[in-house]
């Protein structure tokens, strides 16, 4: 039986420069402040981010209500500082791409695209979860200004 795989794409505007957004994604101390939907945390000691081709991209989301843990293990397949992060999630085969575009005036468009997404991670709930993570990122970036 072949699992139904799909794609997911979300575009958001963020109140920071591409360099600031890029650092938020690759510096573990910043990453843990926004990664995952509302109701989750990411303990700093579970995060490894090596922003280079072949470098690790590992973290564990913890559901605050239940303590359930969701590890993500992957490797970067492309990195362009201030512009692009691409990764492959091991075990699932999901590929992700985060593209940053400078809009001027200290604003950045971020485009998050995922391919080979298992069906259970698609749909309105999954999109809402990603958007709540982006909302957390907006708050984090605004607080740093």
Overview of this structure, please?
It is built from 3 helices and 8 strands. The chain is of the alpha+beta class and 145 residues long. The chain has helices spanning 18-26, 28-31, 124-143, and strands at 5-14, 40-41, 48-49, 56-63, 69-80, 84-89, 95-104, 107-118. It starts with a strand and ends with a helix. A hairpin with a 5-residue loop joins β6 (84-89) and β7.
What's the gyration radius in Å? Answer: 15 Å
The helix/strand series, from N terminus to C terminus, equals: EHHEEEEEEEH
Residue share in helix? 10-25%
Return residue spans where pLDDT drops below 50 for at least 5 consecutive residues.
none
Outline type: globular
Counted by DSSP, the helix tally is 3
Content of β-strand: 35-45%
Summarize the structure.
By secondary structure, this protein is an alpha+beta fold. The protein contains 3 helices and 8 strands.
Describe the structure using short key phrases:
alpha+beta; globular; single chain; 145 residues; 3 helices
Question: Helices and strands in order, then pairings?
Answer:
Blueprint: E1 5-14, H1 18-26, H2 28-31, E2 40-41, E3 48-49, E4 56-63, E5 69-80, E6 84-89, E7 95-104, E8 107-118, H3 124-143
Antiparallel strand pairs: 1-8, 2-4, 3-4, 4-5, 5-6, 6-7, 7-8
């Amino acid at each position: 039986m072949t699992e139904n795989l799909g794609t997911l794409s979300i575009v958001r505007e963020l109140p920071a420069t591409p360099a600031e957004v890029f650092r938020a994604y690759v510096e573990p101390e910043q990453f843990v402040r926004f990664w995952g939907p509302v109701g989750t945390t990411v303990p700093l000691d579970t995060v490894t981010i090596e922003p280079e081709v072949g470098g690790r991209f590992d973290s564990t989301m913890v559901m605050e209500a239940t303590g359930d843990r969701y590890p993500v293990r992957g490797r970067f397949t492309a990195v362009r500082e201030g512009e692009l992060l691409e990764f492959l999630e091991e075990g699932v085969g999901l590929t992700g791409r985060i593209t940053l575009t400078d809009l001027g005036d200290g604003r950045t468009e971020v485009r998050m695209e995922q391919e080979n997404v298992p069906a259970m991670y698609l749909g309105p709930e999954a999109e809402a979860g990603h958007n709540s993570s982006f909302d957390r990122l907006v708050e984090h970036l605004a607080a740093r200004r």
